[in-house]
Amino acid sequence: MTRTQNETGRRGLSFAGGMWSFGRIIDRYATDGYGPEVSTLRTIEIAAETGELTGLDLNYPFDPDVSVDDVRKALDTHGLKAVNITPVIYDRGFRNGAFTGPDAATRHRAIDLGHEAVEVAHALGARYVKFWPGQDGYDYPFQVDYPTLYRHAVEGIGDIARTHPQVTFAIEYKLKEPRNRLFWSTAAASLLAVEQMGADNVGLVVDFGHSLLAKENPAQALSLAHSMGRLVDIELDDNYREWDDDLTAGSLHLVETLEFLHVVRTLDWQEPLKLDLFPYREDPRDAVRESVAALRALDVRAALLPLDELRAAQERHDAMAAQRIVRTALLGGRATTS
Q: pTM for the whole thing?
């Protein structure tokens, strides 16, 4: 009998989400948002209403009148965990850059917020602190001195990480937005910078959609980060490769998502897969449920892949044999050859 991933005894998938998916979502046209304002505590409640999530990625600071203890109680009440804390270093206050901004006081403010996030993560029992330096980059040629930008980006996060050697940190890379060019742009560029940072407790979040946007193969990027010992978390969504659309997982790139889940299986990933969704016009609960349903169905298909046959085809670089294997697992039918 051909060996498949069903025989590995791997537990079923579990899922987490980003709290932003359940709040007011805005863009540069509907600047007043596509829905009402949603409080920190209400986002936790809505997330729990999906019935599919075990934890949340929490943006910090919370609402001014909400304490860390309030958040902990809300999470406990709704049976959710804090997966990680993401300090908000990408809003208007950091519009010229957080760790890489030209103003030293602003850079120090970003570092201070990173230290605060560590304390919040400890209080809530979060697994790691995530940095998404969405303002750390530039927009025009000649706008910045690249060595200085590089030094500030690496030293800012590196200084926080070295101050808290027992805490895990992750950087979520992205090619662009809100800056036209972000420093932490691709898996390879980010891994190189992390290695030069010299901090063993810093790794990457590999976001499927960000990898598509960067014209990467998401499964390859995931494998690369893991091979370097720098994979901290995994996020899933979908897009048209031109923008970070954050559509429901599996809505566009089925084969690439299947390969991504296949790599997740080969890594024996045990943490919840995180959904990074922006349901501008959809009910966020429905968006989560549809994403989970699609990923569970694709994971079932990934489990059907005959590993020995697939590996043999890969060793030969036999594209058509691999395509037959994938097509049969995904669509059914017979894996016939001429």
A: 0.95
